[in-house]
Amino acid sequence: MPAEPGELLSMKTMTKFLVPLLAVAGLALAPVAQASESAFVSAVDSLGHFAIGCPGCASDALNVGYHACAAWDRGGKQAAIQAVRKFYNADSSDSADYYATLFAQYAGQELCPKHDGEIGPI
């Protein structure tokens, strides 16, 4: 049975709204990168600069990593690096900025992946 002219118009109108709606729904269901706390702790441990093996040290590093992510959201990569320096302020080595930058880079890669790649090669 052929559609009535009014029915055809409503089908066209529905299609206009349905196609963008499905596109938005598809984007909403797209996979999102997940934080990997164990990968972050392993990456920081591989530096051999920050204490990770002592009781509570890995959770302290995670805490600093998440503070770096929050600082990143508020003020960019320099804010993230400064957050690391703030929490590891006893690090007076000549390489403190270098290690803080690596720490923030690992936080971006593993804890707040939306910032992954914002710190380039070091």
What report would you give on this structure?
This protein is 65% helix and 0% strand. It is mainly alpha-helical and 122 residues long. It folds into 2 domains: 1-30, no CATH class; 37-115. The longest helix has 24 residues, at 5-28. It is globular. Residues 17-32 have low confidence and may be disordered.
Rg from C-alpha positions? 23 Å
Tally of DSSP helical segments: 5
Mean of residue pLDDT?
Answer: 82
Indicate the overall shape. globular
Note the main sheet.
Answer: none
SSE string: HHHHH
Strand content: under 5%
Cα-to-Cα separation, first versus last residue: 69 Å
Structural class: mainly alpha
What keyword list fits this structure?
122 residues, mainly alpha, 2 domains, 5 helices, 65% helix, 0% strand, globular
What's the SSE blueprint?
Elements: H1 5-28, H2 37-46, H3 57-75, H4 77-87, H5 96-110
A few lines on this structure:
This protein has 122 residues and is mostly helical.
